[in-house]
Specification:
Elements lengths: L1 E5 L6 E4 L9 E10 L2 H8 L11 E2 L3 E5 L5 E5 L11 E5 L3 E3 L6 H6 L2 H13 L8 E4 L4 H12 L5 E5 L2 H9 L4 E4 L5 H12 L3 E6 L3 H8 L2 E9 L12 H5 L4 E4 L7 H16 L6 E6 L3 H10 L4 E6 L1
Parallel strand pairs: 9-10, 9-12, 10-11, 12-13, 13-14, 15-16
Antiparallel strand pairs: 1-2, 1-4, 3-5, 3-7, 3-16, 5-6, 6-8
Helix pairs in contact: 3-4, 3-9, 6-7
Bound molecules: NADP nicotinamide-adenine-dinucleotide phosphate.
Protein name: Zinc-binding alcohol dehydrogenase family protein
InterPro entries: ADH-like_C, ADH-like_N, ER, GroES-like_sf, NAD(P)-bd_dom_sf, Zn-ADH-like_protein
Length: 314
C-alpha cells in the first residue's frame, strides 16, 4: 500500500509499505483522510518527548476512514509501525469513534487531536464556569482558533485571542473573540498589561499552547483562583515565571495532554465537538493534500499555516 514512511528521522517519504493485518482486538481501517499535527512532525524528527519510534514507521497519529463493515469512524493512536498517513491503518478496536452523518472527513480529522486539545483544557482541565474570562494564546493556530470557538460554546464571558499573525487574529474575531492582543515580541510586564487591558481586568483561564514569554506574561494577568492550562511549547520549551504571579492569586498551572485523557472523556468530548460542527457552530479551515505531496505538507506545517488544517488524502 502507499504510505508516508519515516525511513530516517526527518521528513517522511511517499512509498510502498507492508499491508497491516489485524490481530486480537485490532482492526484495519481504509483511510479517507489523515491529519498533520505538530506532534507528527516531532515524532518523524525523533524529537518527541515520549521517545523515538524505531525506524522505519508510517507517520500520522489520527485519521478518518471506514471499518471492514463499512462504518465511518475517526481513529487515533494507530499501532506502530503502521500510521494514519497511508491507504490502510491498524488500530485498536476501542480507538475508534463512529462519525455522525453530515460531518466532512477533513473537519472530522480537525476535531480530533486539535479539537480535543482545545476543548478538553477548557471543559475538563480548567472546569470553565459560565461567564468566566478566557485568554487563548496561540489563537492563530488550529488549536487556538478552535479554542476561541469552544470557549464561547462552553459559556465563557469575555474571550481574548492572542497571536502573532494579524490576519489570523481577524479570523479569531470572526469566530467570536471579543478582543485581540498582538504577540509582536513584547514581553514581561508590558505584555501582562496588554493582556489585562484586553480582559478589562483579569483572566480566570488561560489556554496556553505556547509557553515561553507569552505564558509567563499571561500568568501575571490571572485573577484570584485563575488556571493556566499548559498544552504545548510553540514559543519555547522553558519559561521564567514570577513567584508572586502564582502565589499572589492562588493561581494554578495545570498540564494537558490528549494522551492521558481517559477514553470516555475523550469520546464524549469528540461527540460534542462533532455535534457543534454538524450544526455549523464550529468551523475549521481545512486543506486537502495528496499523500504523494507529504514532504511539501511537512514543510508547510513547520513553516506555520496560521490556523489552516492540512489533511493528507491517500
Ligand atoms: N497537549 C496536547 O495533547 C496537544 C495536542 C495538540 C497540539 N498540541 C500543541 O499545541 C501547539 C499548537 O498546536 P496547533 O495544532 O495549533 O499548531 P499550529 O496550527 O501549527 O499553530 C501553532 C501556533 O503557535 C504559534 N507560534 C509558533 N511559534 C511561535 C512563537 N515563537 N511565538 C509565538 N507564537 C508562536 C503560531 O503562530 P503563527 O500563526 O503566528 O505562526 C500558531 O498560533 C503545538 O505546540 C502542539 O504541539 C498539544
Amino acid at each position: 500500500m502507499r504510505a508516508a514512511v519515516v525511513e530516517q528521522y526527518g521528513t517522511p517519504v511517499a512509498r510502498e509499505f507492508d499491508e497491516p493485518t489485524a490481530g486480537e482486538g485490532q482492526v484495519v481501517i481504509a483511510v479517507a483522510a489523515a491529519g498533520v499535527n505538530p506532534v507528527d512532525v516531532a515524532r518523524a524528527a525523533g524529537t518527541f518527548y515520549s521517545g523515538r519510534d524505531p525506524l522505519p514507521f508510517v507517520a500520522g497519529g489520527e485519521g478518518v476512514g471506514t471499518l471492514p463493515d463499512g462504518r465511518r469512524v475517526y481513529f487515533d493512536r494507530p499501532v506502530t509501525p503502521f500510521g494514519a498517513i497511508a491507504e490502510r491503518a491498524l488500530v485498536r478496536s476501542d480507538a475508534t469513534i463512529e462519525l455522525p452523518d453530515g460531518l466532512d472527513d477533513g473537519l472530522a480529522v480537525a476535531l480530533g487531536i486539535s479539537g480535543l486539545a482545545a476543548w478538553l483544557p477548557l471543559a475538563w482541565r480548567a472546569d470553565l464556569r459560565p461567564g468566566e474570562t478566557v485568554l487563548v494564546l496561540g489563537a492563530t493556530g488550529v488549536l487556538g482558533l478552535i479554542a476561541v470557538q469552544a470557549a464561547k460554546l462552553l459559556g465563557a464571558g469575555r474571550v481574548v485571542a492572542a497571536g502573532r499573525d494579524a490576519a489570523a487574529l481577524e479570523r479569531a474575531v470572526a469566530h467570536g473573540a471579543d478582543a485581540t492582543v498582538r504577540l509582536d515580541g513584547t514581553s514581561g510586564s508590558a505584555l501582562t498589561d496588554a493582556f489585562r487591558d484586553a480582559a478589562g481586568g483579569a483572566f480566570d483561564v488561560v489556554i496556553d499552547p505556547l509557553w515561553g514569554a507569552p505564558a509567563a506574561a499571561a500568568l501575571g494577568a490571572l485573577g484570584r483562583g485563575g488556571r493556566l492550562i499548559q498544552i504545548g511549547q510553540s514559543a519555547g520549551t522553558t519559561a521564567e515565571l514570577s513567584s508572586a504571579a502564582i502565589r499572589g492569586t492562588l493561581a494554578e498551572i495545570r498540564g494537558h495532554t490528549n494522551f492521558l485523557a481517559p477514553a470516555g472523556v475523550k469520546e464524549a468530548a469528540y461527540r460534542t465537538l462533532a455535534e457543534h460542527a454538524v450544526a455549523g457552530r464550529l468551523t475549521v479551515e481545512v486543506e486537502r493534500v495528496a499523500l504523494r505531496d507529504v514532504a511539501d505538507a511537512w514543510a508547510r506545517q513547520q513553516a506555520g499555516l496560521h490556523g489552516r488544517k492540512l489533511v493528507l488524502v491517500p
